[in-house]
């Protein structure tokens, strides 16, 4: 860990007065002395609220902390609303690094000869600059065909910077967990660990390429939801761990509301398709883009009455297994129907809360949180906030953190926020309910049974010719096993007989020894000697008894 970097972070935190977040009464004397010893570092932003100072401090510490702040802003289950809203203001555009340096990094990755042969018009001015990478435009030349592309390149030495900063974050997380009043509930160490895993995944652009290819295939031509989502083409043959080449798209930023209105885009349909994007990825494909903030989402408004969502930056994706997916869908439907008993029971059945949880108490807690929400008109209810409240309530009943559900919650908050921004009258509940009810029916109804049978037909077609042989082998093995069991059983019976015989010989032998002793005391020498001799014979017979 760099001492200079640690000092810079401490200096930033103190100059923005973040030490004031820890009540003085909770600090030990040595911590107070340490704070007093660096008296020259004072709060220079006393006129600003603490949540704004927290955001400004993170912003001033550079890309790694900005990315952390963006991730933290989605954890509304952990942060007060004011903090979450403030951190949500962090933007993706950060100071870019040299375009010439970016070009050299690309050449080092793909090779000078290949770069000169297949790429032209490389623009050293970045199209966009984010926390860990920046994007440049170029023209890809293949088979005398030209295509506009963008080249994403990781910042130089970003991995080293990230690991150094994560070590510092872990240090501060330990301090927060120990001294902040709400430290244990906030689970700062777990949050930093989650951030570390997420950002290390994003450092491998080959992984992002594979995610984008999978997502594009899920929404490719011929599928039911072709017009819902478009994913740019990835040129994986030129991509590397730190360089990604993909088709350039010319969509409109989903946050450019005035421009979309100016083109007469069907905003209601666009918002509804955003809901379809989320639920289709989660429940049809079990593979969802988990970073759909405004900077990663565009709109193809070529046909204003039939708009399409465009998604880029697939570095973070989430998956759900079959059981989680089914329980989650049933939870949503139960919520729509205000069946809190079923919601509570589903949480227990799924293992999300301990098996000994009182369903009655859990149901009452969920009802207490959710009933006031449902008194509002459906169009005013935040679906994402209901999910946050549910997870918060479940956590009081020792619900373990489910990473896949955290990503899901984050994505739903993004999608709902975008949908309401595009079309404020969006009733996400009414849009989602038919989708989920149909999905549950398809997965659990008669149609699902026939679908599973249909899926199994190729397997049974392959195994059917082998069935007579398998039955014969089973019967033969059963007969052999029965014979072996009979032999073993017979052997056990013989052993029992032998043990019984040994026991009788031993008892008689011992009895004769006692009789010989009595005869000896009565001066019956010959009878005593005979009894001893017979006792010895019986003892020898017992020792020699065997199967």
Automatic annotation (TrEMBL):
Compartments where found: Cell membrane
Pathway annotation: Cofactor biosynthesis; ubiquinone biosynthesis [regulation]
Active site: 291 (proton acceptor)
Known EC number: 2.7.-.-
Main location: membrane
UniProt GO cellular component terms: plasma membrane
Example GO BP: ubiquinone biosynthetic process
Keywords: ATP-binding, Cell inner membrane, Cell membrane, Kinase, Membrane, Nucleotide-binding, Transferase, Transmembrane, Transmembrane helix, Ubiquinone, Ubiquinone biosynthesis
Purpose of the protein: Is probably a protein kinase regulator of UbiI activity which is involved in aerobic coenzyme Q (ubiquinone) biosynthesis.
The protein, known as: Probable protein kinase UbiB
Record organism: Litorilituus lipolyticus
């Amino acid at each position: 860990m760099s001492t200079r970097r640690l000092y810079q972070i401490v200096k930033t935190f103190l100059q923005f007065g973040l030490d004031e977040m820890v009540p003085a009464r909770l600090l030990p004397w040595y911590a107070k002395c340490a704070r007093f010893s660096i008296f020259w570092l004072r709060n220079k932003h006393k006129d600003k609220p603490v949540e704004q100072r927290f955001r400004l401090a993170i912003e001033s510490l550079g890309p790694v902390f900005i990315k952390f702040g963006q991730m933290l802003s989605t954890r509304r289950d952990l942060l007060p609303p004011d903090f979450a809203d403030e951190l949500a203001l962090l933007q993706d555009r950060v100071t870019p690094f040299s375009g010439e340096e970016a070009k050299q990094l690309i050449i080092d990755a793909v090779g000078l000869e290949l770069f000169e042969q297949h790429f032209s018009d490389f623009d050293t001015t970045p199209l966009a600059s984010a926390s860990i990478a920046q994007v440049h435009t170029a023209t890809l030349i293949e088979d005398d065909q030209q295509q506009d592309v963008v080249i994403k390149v990781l910042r130089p030495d970003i991995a080293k910077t990230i690991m150094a900063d994560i070590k510092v974050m872990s240090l501060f997380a330990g301090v927060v967990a120990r001294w902040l009043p709400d430290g244990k509930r906030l689970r700062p160490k777990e949050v930093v660990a989650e951030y570390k895993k997420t950002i290390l995944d994003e450092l491998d652009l080959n992984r992002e390429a594979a995610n984008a290819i999978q997502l594009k295939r899920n929404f490719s031509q011929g599928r039911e939801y072709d017009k819902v989502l478009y994913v740019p083409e990835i040129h994986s043959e030129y991509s590397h761990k730190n360089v990604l080449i993909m088709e350039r798209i010319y969509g409109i930023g989903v946050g450019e509301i005035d421009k979309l209105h100016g083109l007469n885009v069907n905003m209601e349909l666009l918002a509804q398709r955003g809901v379809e994007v989320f639920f289709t990825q989660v429940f049809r494909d079990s593979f969802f883009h988990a970073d759909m903030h405004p900077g990663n989402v565009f709109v193809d408004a070529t046909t204003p009455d039939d708009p399409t969502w465009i998604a880029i930056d697939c570095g973070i994706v989430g998956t759900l297994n079959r059981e989680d997916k089914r329980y989650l869908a049933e939870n949503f439907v139960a919520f729509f129907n205000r069946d809190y008993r079923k919601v509570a029971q589903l949480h227990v059945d799924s293992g999300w809360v301990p098996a000994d949880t009182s369903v009655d108490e859990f149901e009452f807690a969920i009802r207490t949180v959710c009933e006031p929400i449902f008194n509002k008109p459906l169009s005013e209810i935040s679906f994402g906030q209901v999910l946050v409240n549910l997870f918060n309530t479940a956590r009081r009943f020792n619900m373990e953190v489910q990473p896949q559900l955290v990503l899901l919650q984050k994505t739903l908050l993004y999608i709902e926020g975008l949908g309401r921004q595009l079309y404020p009258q969006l009733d996400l509940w009414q849009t989602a309910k038919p989708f989920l009810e149909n999905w549950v029916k398809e997965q659990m109804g008669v149609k699902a049974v026939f679908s599973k049978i249909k899926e199994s037909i190729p397997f049974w077609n392959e195994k059917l010719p082998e069935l007579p042989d398998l039955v014969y082998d089973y019967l033969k093995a059963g007969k052999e096993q029965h014979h072996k069991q009979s032999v073993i059983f017979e052997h056990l019976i013989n052993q029992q007989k032998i043990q019984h015989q040994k026991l009788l010989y031993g008892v008689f032998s011992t009895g004769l020894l006692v009789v010989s002793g009595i005869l000896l005391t009565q001066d019956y020498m010959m009878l005593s000697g005979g009894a001893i001799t017979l006792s010895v014979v019986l003892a020898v017979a017992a020792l020699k008894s065997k199967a």
